[in-house]
Amino acid sequence: QVQLVESGGGLVQPGGSLRLSCAASGSVASIRIMGWYRQPPGKTRELVAFITSGGSIIYTNSVKGRFTISRDNAKNAVYLQMNTLEPEDTAVYYCNADTGGPDSPYYYWGQGTQVTVAS
C-alpha cells in the first residue's frame, strides 16, 4: 500500500505561479513512476506530467515550457512547479504513483488539491 498526500493548491491570478507537493508513504520502494493528473470542472481526469524512478519525464503538450515536475527519491516526494498559469489550468490536481510493471500499471491516488486560476 502507498499513501499520497498533496499540498500547495490555491487561488492564483493568471500569469502567477504555484508549487504542488506530494509526499508518499508506505511501500515506497515499489513506486516506479510518480506523476500529476488533473480534472478540470466537467471534464475527465488527464495526465499533466510524470517522472520515472530513473528521471525520465513526460509532459502533456499544454503545460510544456510552463510546468516542471521533479522528484526527491530520498524524501519520497514529487513536486509540480506551475508557472504562467492560465484559467484553463483550473482543476483538481491529483498525485499519482505507479507500482506496477510497464504492461500492468497499478495506480495509487492522492486526495486531490484544488488549483483555481482567476482574476
Give structural notes.
The protein has 119 residues and is mostly beta strands. The chain contains no helices and eleven strands. It has strands spanning 2-7, 10-12, 18-26, 33-39, 46-52, 57-59, 67-72, 77-82, 91-98, 107-109, 113-117. Strands 2, 4, 5, 6, 9, 10 and 11 form a seven-stranded mixed beta sheet that branches. It has a four-stranded antiparallel beta sheet with strand order 1-3-8-7, with no helix packed on it. The termini are far apart. The relative contact order is 0.32.
Give the helices and strands, then pairings:
Elements: E1 2-7, E2 10-12, E3 18-26, E4 33-39, E5 46-52, E6 57-59, E7 67-72, E8 77-82, E9 91-98, E10 107-109, E11 113-117
Describe, in short, the structure shown.
With about 120 residues, the chain is mainly beta. Helices cover about 0% and strands about 55% of the residues.
List keywords for this structure.
single chain, 119 residues, mainly beta
Radius of gyration: 14 Å
Q: Count of helical segments? A: 0
- Look at the structure and give the mean pLDDT: 95
**Percentage of residues in strands:** over 45%
The largest pleated sheet is described as:
7 strands, mixed
Q: Name the overall outline.
A: globular
Cα(first) to Cα(last) distance is: 40 Å
The helicity comes to under 10%
The assigned structural class equals mainly beta
| Poorly predicted residue ranges | none
User: Can you count the beta strands?
Assistant: 11
Helix/strand order: EEEEEEEEEEE
